[in-house]
Predict the 3D structure of the following.
Amino acid sequence: MTNLSAESFRDRRLVAIMFTDIVGYTSMMQRDEKGAVDTIEQHRLILEKYTQKHQGEILQYYGDGSLSIFPSAIEAVECALEVQKDLIRLHIPLRIGIHLGDVKIKGESIFGDGVNVASRVQSLGVSGSVLITDTIYHLIRNQSNVKTVSLGSFNLKNVDQPIFLYALEDEFLSVPNKNELPRQDFSSRRKTNWTSLAVIAVLAVLLGYFAIRFFIQSAGDSVLNDKSIAVLPFDNLSNDPDQEYFSDGITEDIINHLAKIEALKVKSRTTTEQYKNPGKTIPVIGHELGVSYILEGSVRKIDNKVRIVAQLIDVKNDVHVWTETYDREMVEIFDIQSNIAVEIAQVLEARLTNEEQRHIRGRSREKMNSSDITAYDYLLKARNAWREWNDEKDLENALELVDKAIEMDPVFAPAYVLKGTILHHGMREFGVPNTVWIDQALDLADKAIEIDSMLSGAYLLKGNILSEQDWNSDEALKTLIKAYRLEPGNPNVLESLGNVHMRRGDYEKGASKIIKSIERQFSIKDPEYYYRWGNIYFMMNEPAKAEQLYLKAINLNPKWLAPYYNLGQMYRYGNNLDMAEKTFRKALEIAPYDQQTLDALGWVHLQAGDLKDASKDWSSYEEIERQYTDTSQYLPFRHRLGYVQLLQGDTVSAYKLIKEQLTRDLERHQNLRGYGVWPDRGYYYDLAASYAFLGQKEEALAWLDSAAQMGFMSSWYLENDPLFNNIRNESEFKRIKTDYEAQWQRQVEAFRKAINETNYIPPEIKIKVGKEPSL
């Protein structure tokens, strides 16, 4: 069925890849050639000794370094520890990097992206260190004899996606100072991770997520002839580079003030942060962002004084239209931010209502004092820590900082909002969500509103929580409308409000808000720009254009899982099974244990009639559960595997597996009750499928109706999932299917209408089918 022959995979393996390198070998060679040669020899003897002990294989020596592979992560780590212990005793300065990756070996040559990653990881180390990637960390974290230190996320050369690194820790090892390592970038990771979490049922997520994320831009000029503006990250001109969090915080707060002016179209912080030290001209940046004006500037903070320089540039003509320097006391920092927003509105002749001016000025209070400024400083540090978190320790640090802000200024409403946001969004990254955190987050939002009734972020936080607890919440809608009135240009507010309108069936109003939100989200250099448009055309059943847009996203970021997954599903729905398998296998090179991709691959083989391969794919849940003990991992494999075993004649095992899936899904539902509609609720559909197979029609139809109401369904599965064979002719099943398809069509029509009525049609999506690079 596929062009990927068994021969081509005969020498392909998933292995732990280890690179070693002797630090300072060149200068060592210049000082003492014989001693350097002896060092190389000792390095090789010790490496060979422990590599053999741990079932590894040395594939290459290159001068003062080596490349080895191991059958498991723990073998590679234990080998590295023993090698370092002996070499440190001999005063040989070695650094080691380890990564888990799929490699292909031909003779003495080794291929695979994992090799490049391992090499780059090793290069970040210091003498006596062992660095590992997060894929290795997750496999060895439960080993009591192995200790690690989180270093954060790093952009590695020729590696498109940020990589999360850890250092092994022991009394004889060295751990790099993460503040001295290359700049970290966390935006891509969260984008990828949240996307991966959201993909449970493909077309269901197209409804809940894809429609929220497409970008509309000008149909004519590459630069918008309107009051659109992007604020680039302000430069930190303080003598202390650690003050960068302060300049970043000032930039974000200026963006938030500008978002309160409805007449302006302001790009989001996440879009513009990629242009820190961009090395591009203003016209180029303006074209990529699709704006008419750029605001740039600098911040210098010394003791209790601050200098902020801001300048507004006309993108088309590349000329300054306004500039201002603010030399003020730190206690006037909020006034500076407000003044910048008001003056820009005046320069651009943007209509600024009295109410908007009042919102920009914020809650009236007496002149700020030193404790207020200290609280603001703690808030900016906490915000920075929250944005750059890697693990629970980082989140705890962010909470400690925001608690200090509240302690210094108990009526500082933004601090309560940030704390609630961390609790709401951060903690659930580490397991099944805890309703206690949600209750605390709601209380904090209410506290912030009580202090400052003009704080949009407080209403946004509360509205999001309420809408997740109750899909059709009237209170959530009212709360988000308040957030919108305070910050009509805030893309997060527009997105949340639009999504609630969509859930409530007010599709045209929802589509309008979503379009206004997405205008502000992406640049044309962002792969997510094309990914979101690919999702739109996938949803609208235009697969040829969707395919090319997904390929553009992949071309911009070959290490991003999401476009591979959706492209593979599109191929699968179109019964192009060879291309579907090829695409999913590429996705598994990026994330070998991604359960959605493994599940989709099982479907490919089932559709092709390859029961042996389907059984192998869906049996992978056993390996995933061994590798990841996190109970938040949702594995919808057992009932699928059970169906395949039924086709193979093993009825006993089939029913056992399907009942196991049913039990696990019911337990999951019990654990998540009260939390609401957090996206990982695909078990609604799977409960319906399991009950249907077992002949419990009433329960199956009830769960199926819930899945439809919450968006966790698709017409393809309703039409083709064999587990529903027992109830497919039931009138209630037909009613659910008909209603769902009608709702879906109304959403499609609403977005078509919204797109046709707007002037922002992106020229970048007007591509010629077949002209883009193939997979």
Notes: The CA atoms of residues 261 and 352 lie 7 Å apart. DSSP finds 33 helices and 14 strands in the chain. The radius of gyration is 28 Å. Confidence is low (pLDDT under 50) at residues 1-10, 183-225.
